[in-house]
Amino acid sequence: MASSTVRLNQAYESAKDVDYSGRAISVCRGRRLLFLIVLVGVIALVVGLLIGRFAIPHDKSSEEKLLRALSQEADADVSETILNAISPRNIEENLKILSQKPHIAGRQGDFDLVKFIRERFQSYGLGVQVTPYDVLLSYPNDEVANSVRLLSSNGDIVYDSVQNESDISHLEGVVPPFNAYSPARKVEGKLAFVNYGRVDDYTWLQSRGINVTGHIVLAKLGRIFRGDIVDIAAANGAIGVVTFPDPADYTGVNNGDRRYAPDALWMPPDGIQRGTIFTGFADPLTPGYPANSKIAHVIARQH
Ligand SMILES: *[C@@H]1O[C@H](CO)[C@@H](O)[C@H](O)[C@H]1NC(C)=O
Ligand SMILES: *[C@@H]1O[C@H](CO)[C@@H](O)[C@H](O)[C@H]1NC(C)=O
């Protein structure tokens, strides 16, 4: 492989969607749901009720009593009521509906689930409000697939990555393989294997005189967040990153189990993991604040 180079083609978006920093981005009205807040609200209410039951101070040792009350077993009636209200059948049915179709954030499948969850909560007698959020999301180019190519020293393509997964690509709404927030670029360079792409892995390589500056690094997924794999690679001078799930980590082959989904939980041999490489928190455009124009106005007025 020493004489081979790898070409990465992150061809996501047409030029108009690529901003000046080269990021393939697409601003979309993310239909986030208030349901999460409602859920947190419900949990907070339940916790509040549980705490409230013991939190009414009476005398000087009330703090002590409160501490003791909080550290004792919860009221058996409460846990029994909650446990009795949970039906494994309902969980199975709900999970089936929630996972039936692709539902990448901000697209139709996602919004369909918002409606489903809203109706479910309403059927339980809860009031639900759906609030739109403006979140910077990242989508792949549906027309030009991303690819990884292995080239010989004279530029011939020795290997071209598969672009479709045989068992799901034909399904409606399946998003082509991509890493969200990865820049749309084509890079070519020599390959360097960096194990799981951890800081320690680079320290190990450096201790053996291996410098990955200017290389495309090949890293195994699964030990650290894929966004950190990319950040650490960049910090070490890499110009591109190829990640892959090692069958030793992601299948049952070590135990002689060669089955995969839908017969087992393992990913099919041509399955490709998707995910984000963004290492920030929440919406990249409004870090630390809700990505909601109303709230942004409130913040602006305060400053
Ligand atoms: C991938 O699947 C799509 C949709 O089924 C199809 O249009 C496309 O030609 C396929 N691409 C490859 C490289 O097989
Ligand atoms: C790796 O190589 C680059 C350029 O060739 C150099 O700038 C950098 O200092 C080297 N890093 C280490 C750790 O030797």
UniProtKB/TrEMBL annotation:
* Keywords on record: Membrane, Transmembrane, Transmembrane helix
Q: Determine if Phosphoprotein is one of this entry's keywords.
A: no
One GO MF term attached to the UniProt entry: carboxypeptidase activity
Its signal peptide is none
* Domain (PA): residue spans on this chain: 188-275
Q: Which organism is it from?
A: Plakobranchus ocellatus
- Residue ranges annotated as transmembrane are 33-56
InterPro entries reported in the protein's UniProt record: PA_dom_sf, PA_domain, Peptidase_M28B
What protein name does the entry list? N-acetylated-alpha-linked acidic dipeptidase 2
